[in-house]
Amino acid sequence: MSTLNSAPPRVPDAPEEAPATTPAGGKANARGRFGAKFTPYSLLVPSIVVLGVVIGWPLINLIIMSFQKFGRAQVFGAPPEWIGFGNYAKVLGDPTFWEVLGRSLLFCLVCVVITMVLGTLIAMMMTRLTKFFRLLLSVGLLLAWAMPALTATIVWGWIFDTDYGVINNVLVNVFGLDFQQHSWLIDPVSFFFVAAIIVIWGAVPFVTFTVYAGLSQVPDEVLEAASLDGAGYLARFRLIVFPYLKSIFVVVTILQIIWDLRVFTQIYALQGIGGIKEQTSTLGVYIYQTSLGSGEYGIGGAIAVITVIILMAISLYYVRQSIKEEEL
Amino acid sequence: MTSQTALGPTLRGTTPPSKRVTSGALRRRKTTTVVLSIIAVIIFLCAVFPVYWMINTSFQPNNEIRSTTLHFWPDNFTLRNYYTVLFEPGRTPFLPALGNSLMVTLLTVTVALVFAFLASLAVTRFRFKSRKAFILTILIIQMIPAEAMIVSTYRVLDGWHLLNTIAGLTLVYVATVLPFTIWTLRGFVNGIPVELEEAGMVDGLSRSGAFWKITFPLLAPGLVATGVFGFIQAWNEFLLALVVNSRPDMMTLPVWLRTFQTLTGTTNWAAIMAGSTLMAIPVIVFFLIVQGRMTSGLVSGAVKG
Amino acid sequence: MKKKLGVLALVAASALALTSCASNGSPGSSEASDANIRVWLVGTDTPKEAREYLVSTFEKENPGSKLTIEEQSWTGLVDKLNTNLSGSDSPDVVEVGNTQAAAFTSAGAFLDLTKDFDELGGKDLLPGFVEAGSYDGKFYAAPLYSGARLVFYKKDALAAAGLQVPTTLADYVTNGKKLATDNPGKSGIWWPGQDWYNALPFIWENGGEVATFKDGKWSSAFSTEKSLEGLKQVQDAMLNASRAPKDGKEDNPQVGFCDGTSLQLSAPSWVKWSILAKADSETPGCPDQEENLGVYALPGKDGGAASVMAGGSNIAVSAKSKHPELAVKALKIILSDEFQTIYAKGGLVPAKLSLAKELGTDEVAKATAEAAAHARLTPASPKWADVEAAGVLQDFFVKIAQGGDVDSLAKELDKKIDGILNG
Question: What is the CATH number of domain A87-325?
């Protein structure tokens, strides 16, 4: 992520290694030439209709709900009572919410940084592997990716199991350490260590495949020319490859932030295996517990809206970055 | 991350220098390839271990899964769990659930890719009012925690009489994957120079012809990456499928899988692992099919630049 | 007190309903004769025989109509009920966990069955479950079945330690500790930290309560003197008798029993079948241990059986059912003696007190009947399900299992539960 932060300013005045085809270049004229005003809108119609029906309408409901006292009785037809910002005040005044938020942000940060770095390194590595090893690696990553989050959590839970886990077994029998019946989940830091492994393990394949797909769009000539110039790998990446991948990077990073901050299945399932819930809940789990678990849909809605606002604030920086470049 | 970057040089340092090499550069390149291959194998093993453990477990009797002796290999090999999952009478059958899952997933991927391709063209190749708003909306939609919207989503589908139907679930999944797909494809389309399309149009193609014949093939890697993503999302989604398709005959695979988990009694872990293994197969098949596309996309990359 | 009032109100209401019976004969005729009644049964607890009986009896009694059993899983059941019961495609009859029932009765999700109370079994129905299925003096969800918690033990281990089956709760803990000391690395009482069900008897037996209701307000009572006494016993057992993971869950208890690491454990009666499951069954147990498997009802503080937590299910008709009359007819079959006897034969406590004798006469049956007679339930607050959903009890007992300070933890817990119950 730090590489992403430092690189952007270089892009607009793209260095001569990346010629006129720089992806994000100002193409106002070219776009203008495509003319016809209605065309873009008609291209958007299918997407807008689907999103409007399936997301838009429920979203409006959610926002309305967040201003109401909306519990289970309201689900079954009792008229809801308007309470203004009551739910928001309740959420923001609850220390639990702030603990959950802080925990989620930290967890998200760690996961996103490690996932992005690992994913990118593996993708770059893949471009330099022989066909056999590349296929081997992609199949391995795909297998990890294809595993449903719940199954993955169960299996990882076994690997770290207190009584019968592989990890404890190996630590005790091979390394002679005192890990007999060691609980990996009871301590919150250790809990999140395990959770981070599960989340990162599941997310790296996506980053790798996407970045790799992006890398394969970079014209070979450009890469070759650069390597003839004797540019170091890192410099080559930053100056030549990165501008091509820039949009993909921003996209993937933002997505990772969003997903990791909302992470639900892995944490929820892991809490079922062990650990102390109140010290390990993240935003996704907290929302689930509040709305579906406890039937406090109004409060759950308020937390959801607050989460979206926080996520918007975080990603705003990146969005502005990418928007500026495209002269949006 | 430091350990990862440090790994390269350290390993390279420990590799004994090759016997007879013509030039330093060539030797270095060779060593790098070997080192990278070794790292690739290590990463492969890390990625695959839980998968291996899942498959290993699926071939063991249920009472040996969690036992004081570790079974790195199914010593007491059994197909019992697969039998349980596939044929056990009284169980919700596997095949209808597989059918539902396949239908929903394939429809979702196809529809989402088509819609997203069109939308991403709109936002990258045209400038129009509210373009910015659209892109931002797409982004914001992805931030909404799905867990909070389940009741509302349910009611929308109920209103359209789409509960317990393939169409209803597909519609919801398309909407779930679409923002991601548009948002990511947009990145890929941005990577394809407009000049290529313009050149095509100079050669007598219509604009839609240029999109279709030039941009679309070049977009193959991106379509594959986002398609695989959409496939996995739709394939593994649990909570919505549970709530929206509650009739047993409309169940999808993830919901079906959970029928092996009981609240207080004995959870049939081995069967869950066998089911999960079966569930992974279509994803891999799908990937292998599109893999070919991905390579052909790379071949057509000759047009690039 | 409240319970008595509730039952009284029920009786009154049903009397009232009886007098008005004549007036509600008409809507039945308007019901389509080709109706399909959808019944949600959860999990695999209801035997196949019972399911077949239900379908065939219903279709015989209501020619032209159909009854479909849709098996649901316990995972996510509350989510599913929340949505599906409020939609247009609602199932007609649904099973719900007894501690989950209150959340739906209070929300108006179920059809009012007060007028059918007597016909469904009346005072013969398990009283605790009737209370769980009633709200505001009305009867919404009938008992379906119950399971009792029993203590399973290895006869040889108890004999080797020179111990007898305990007769008091204190003996039970002492025995457990002795077993654990005699057999290092094994559990004298297998008690994973998340298992709060088994802790409640200790509170009740010492005269404590989970929560009490007074002047329209609930107050959680974990930190009262009597409850604390029980909780300290719990901690003693968890720390000194159990080698189970401190943050573990109580599922799959047969695993430790079969591999020999759990010498005693308290679990629902049906765990017997998990332990004795044959080698070629789906989840094999250790049938060779049959001779060695002993069972008794958890002893009370001063002898006899302890008040244990009753698990089980209620069953109700959806308020949105399109064929309420037919649904109620199906419910009546489910609560018939014939149907309920099948549960009893399978080792579950039937919904009717008069059928308890059908449980059989073996050791487990006797212990089950004894435990069921002393079964108690969690507080009858519509918000209790939320306490469970929030997981505060699991957290509390995990901390107890770790050796945390009982007094301060109990005070903290009371504050949390008060907040939820009165929120």
Answer: 1.10.3720.10
